[in-house]
Write the structure tokens for this entry.
Amino acid sequence: MDYTLESGVDPLREAINNSLAQFVDRENEYLREIASELYPVADALKNFLLDSGKRFRPLFAAAGYVGSGGVLDTASINAIASIELVHVCALIHDDVMDGSDTRRGAPSIHRLFEKLHRNDSLKGSPEQFGVASAILLGDLALVWASKALHESGMPSQSLLRALPLYDEMRVELMAGQYLDVYEQALASESIERSLKVARFKSGKYSIERPLHFGASLSTGQNLLAYSGYGIPLGEAFQLRDDLLGVFGDPAQTGKPAGDDLREGKRTVLIAATLQRSTPDQKARINSLLGKQDLGISEVEELRAIITSSGALDFVEKMITDLTQESLAALETGTITSDAKSFLIHMAAVATKRSY
Amino acid sequence: MDYTLESGVDPLREAINNSLAQFVDRENEYLREIASELYPVADALKNFLLDSGKRFRPLFAAAGYVGSGGVLDTASINAIASIELVHVCALIHDDVMDGSDTRRGAPSIHRLFEKLHRNDSLKGSPEQFGVASAILLGDLALVWASKALHESGMPSQSLLRALPLYDEMRVELMAGQYLDVYEQALASESIERSLKVARFKSGKYSIERPLHFGASLSTGQNLLAYSGYGIPLGEAFQLRDDLLGVFGDPAQTGKPAGDDLREGKRTVLIAATLQRSTPDQKARINSLLGKQDLGISEVEELRAIITSSGALDFVEKMITDLTQESLAALETGTITSDAKSFLIHMAAVATKRSY
């Protein structure tokens, strides 16, 4: 069965979800054959993967594939969907590293297995069991990502051309994640440094590399144009995400209000605020940022400083400029017109203000 | 340059180490180009990988390759060496899950980054930074494993034949690791259950699958014979490892005396001891096993119970029988004679009594 970009995001997302569901069902059957004790692993991964998720990265990969001349069929959808499993690894491990209790409104994987440990009255520390399980489930998702790609049914030549990009994307992801963790620990106040992290975490990993990966599955054309589109858009997307982490509506983000403030995230928004603040405000920000039990009135107070400092407007302007730059790059290659329309739409989705 | 199995283990191990060193140097240069903050990541992974390690899995892969008709050259050594990086991921993550302070006599990766956090007076929890770093370094090693294989220089057809086995090996590894963690938490007293874990952790992952992987890089022949050799030998190897964890010499194992007892590992040895113990002894074992500050006299006491119960002899007999079964399987395929001699030698190394 063939798919097109012209029918829009939803049918394509459904095709991606179907591919993921089929893969994970097949793998889960295999896990259950190994041992019944693996049932919770199989179920947890399936639910985590399929319960929600915007499928941003596979959608960009699909656009990269079509934009470079590919025709979407079952095999290419399978290959494209596989990168969502890389993302699942990143999310599961991210939650362990941040100590996050929830993900997309449900318990994070390490909390889920902590609970399983408690419910079954197992021996040892429930927290340690939760962390160990989440590390292994993330690892498994990363291995599944490779497996899903290898088994996608793509012609050998496409597969062999795509593997180096797949590898590079994943190396950059891990490097970007480390830089992010390190940046938080450094409590950096530099906009430049925060932007660099944003570039790796989102610019390259979430948009540019999925586009490249998709392109490499077809003809390998338009890599430069995709970089020109992907890197600034990724930064804009990350900046929007940072704004949502502070100003976002919990009903939409699935996270408590001001969660990034509680986590003490060192974002471009925070760096820009610190640069524009009085010494008193600066001291206040540094004392509240990362406070585990930050109350709603303190969140409001920080929001007020961020807004009055001009940092909110500054970041909104950055998002607008970066998005413009991104869209201009779509005219530089030989990207097919259906992919171009799709990518213009995706740029709007990725940077949409929704608070 | 060509290599043979006839010159023995050491030159082959050196060739594997050279391949790993070249790969990791290339990757580290790339990491350093991304950001200077990645220097510690690059250094830590390089040291962890190259400081020591028996290279068991690559050696078995080399035997599988040659035994099925392959000729060892630079490309195949590269491909074979790549599975050591899978193992590095497993070790780094294992140390996080166990909370181990050391690995091969040096600080474990999470402790190393905990120290870096303290030395640089970074913000937040040093422990959390250590764990986050170790999770990411393990992930990176797992991605590097794929990359090293893809870039090995093997002909496309060999590579494409090897990928499914590579995937299956890694899925089994993660499943086996989870079963192990779960088994510890269950505090199981069943020999059968402990053996099942041993089968996945060592039998399949450490020996059978590396042999299969090597075979698939050449002609794909002798898979059944390799299973017949690998599964029982892997079990024997794991049983030997369990004995070393209780009776081993710290100078040789690089771990404190009786470390498995302190960790409360539920091994076949412990299960066999419990089955042969009086109710009093059983209660004593259960009260000491997993005691974090277990002293040397308590280690001695547990050792005495294990020995006097007959469990030590029972496990030694199992090792002998399994090794016999393993060697007999070498006669069932068309394994080349040089690979056969090499595998007989490896069986002796893997099950050698050294305490």
